[in-house]
Amino acid sequence: MSLRIVVCVKYVPDATGDRHFADDLTVDRDDVDGLLSELDEYAVEQALQIADEADDAEITVLTVGPEDAKDALRKALSMGADKAVHVEDDDLHGTDVMGTSLVLAKAIEKTGYDLVICGMASTDGTMGVLPAILAERLNVPQVTLLSEVSVEGGAEGTVKGRRDGDTASEQLEAALPAVVSVTDQSGEARYPSFKGIMAAKKKPVEALELDDLDIDADEVGLEGAWTAVDSAAERPARTAGTIVKDEGEGGKQLAAFLAEQKFI
Amino acid sequence: MAEVLVYVDHVDGAVRKPTLELLTLARRIGEPVAVALGNGAADTAAALAEHGATRVLTADAPEFADYLVVPKVDALQAAYAAVSPVAVLVPSSAEGKEIAARLAVRIKSGIITDAVDLEAGDEGPVATQSAFAASFTTKSRITQGTPVITVKPNSAAVEAAPAAGAVEALEVSFSAAATGTKVVSRTPRESTGRPELTEAAIVVSGGRGVNGAENFSIIEKLADSLGAAVGASRAAVDAGWYPHSNQVGQTGKSVSPQLYIANGISGAIQHRAGMQTSKTIVAVNKDAEAPIFDLVDYGVVGDLFEVVPQLTQEIETRKG
Q1: B9 and B142 in one domain?
Q2: Mutate which of A16, A28, A98 to disrupt the B interface (most B C-beta within 10 Å)?
Q3: Which domain holds residue B86?
Q4: CB distance A173–B182 less than 8 Å?
Q5: Is B234 one of the annotated binding-site residues?
Q6: Is there a domain that residue B195 lies in?
Q7: pLDDT at B191
Q8: Any signal peptide, and if so, which residues (chain A) (predicted)?
């Protein structure tokens, strides 16, 4: 039986752009360019490599987000994913990680899966907890923060990987179905080829709304969120410091500054 | 008085500093009740009591080491059920965040991650977070269930606040999911003898300008002269010059030390995200236009191969 891989991706504001909050203190997605989160490219890449190794595999790339989030799906399809699912609904605006994970879990179940692959975190929210929450919601093993990953035995098989933690490096193993997340150390993501970009235009993108997933509007959105942001303030610019040009005494001058600040 | 559950990060009974910081924050909200799991759990009690834990709930079982994350979630949930706390605080390590998140789903609570400060508020604890590569500061609350909050290292001072710290055994029955992901083998990271990157008071980092793995020795020498941790930019890590475990930035560690010294680092957004909340920032870079100089309290435009060894030597001389 074909190995069904679902890759969860997020459409995020460009981290190199001028990111800010909208009036309702949600992430402003209108006034800044968006793109497929860089950290999710690693997830797509590992899905493609696992699919290459498997006898038979199908990769579905899944996102929850506004109309523009299709760009993220298109990018993943042009890298080589087979099809896409886009959950889009006006009621989703302002959804927090609990609501998003609920929507993703239902969409993953509806799509059918043996392996879910996520990036290690989003580049906008940066929580890094969604893969663990998905595993909890789907009630399948969590095999997360892997810098190496492989699948043996197809859809009925096992997933193995290496998790590099603060104090130790661990070899992990779990039976499928499972939820995996991969780090930016898992391997450089490929660039879409021209052929891939052309092919992506013909790949199917399924559109789903909350009704299709039996989710009520009050379970998601800003009102349904289990957290509330009360204020967001731009960090004051750091006061301009002293900058000297090294004329042979730069190291000593720096030492004098550190001594003055009581670091030495 | 209301009790606050504090998840203890420890290595074989040695409590890590971020947990002690967490006790400082927990005392602003209520009486800290610590939960320590795994090998050496009971040995944590003395340090926890000294810093304000009124009770220390402990459990040890092979499952904590043999399987990933879920056994610890089961135990924390058991502690939650036994204590009925007003909040659950967990250190913001990779594992800590995963444990906290799964607990939050189970107890139907909202979660806030990577708080850098915490205060009591009329509607529950108010958490301060940094957003968008630390260019914004937000204040947030949890509006559903018992607040579950993970807190970053260096977010509060460690304070002595002696309390009873009575050790109590925690009854844990593991869920079916507990044994889902097996830890087949574990290779401890070799100790460098330097402070842990996220916990260090001083961090000395090297970037593209260091230009080679062998040259990192001059960064290490400066770090050692200050008792500092060593960091590296993504460029240096991607080039294979320094281990990923030392990467500072968006996809690496986020640090907030008293002093951050950036050497040969341009200061791209990816790096700034991980260090711009440092109290004092110093940079050495040969490019006067490098964006890192917008952040610094003191900057030297010059060749790091000249400036850094001179700095190290001057520090050694001043120390006598």
Answers
A1: yes
A2: A98
A3: 3-179
A4: yes
A5: yes
A6: no
A7: 83
A8: none
In angstroms, rounded to a whole number, what is the distance separating the alpha carbons of residues B87 and B32?
10
Domain count across chain B: 2
Domains of chain A as residue ranges with CATH = 3-224 (3.40.50.620)
Q: Residues of B numbered 78-137 whose beta carbons fall under 8 angstroms of chain A's beta carbons: which are they?
A: 93-95, 97-98, 100-102, 104-106, 109-114, 126, 130-137
pLDDT for the residue B109: 98
B320 touches chain A (CB under 8 A): no
In sign, the C-alpha dihedral spanning B101, B105, B106, B109 is positive
The secondary structure of B220-244, three-state, reads HHHHHHHCCEEEECHHHHHCCCCCH
pLDDT of residue A166: 80
pLDDT digits (tens, 9 = 90+) for A97-107: 999 999 999 99
Q: What is the mean pLDDT of chain B?
A: 96
- Within a domain: residue B189? no
CB A227 to CB B141 under 8 A? yes
pLDDT at A167: 83
- Taking CA atoms, A263 is separated from B201, B220, B275, in Å, by 10, 17, 18
A222, amino acid identity: L
The CATH code of the domain that includes B21 is 3.40.50.620
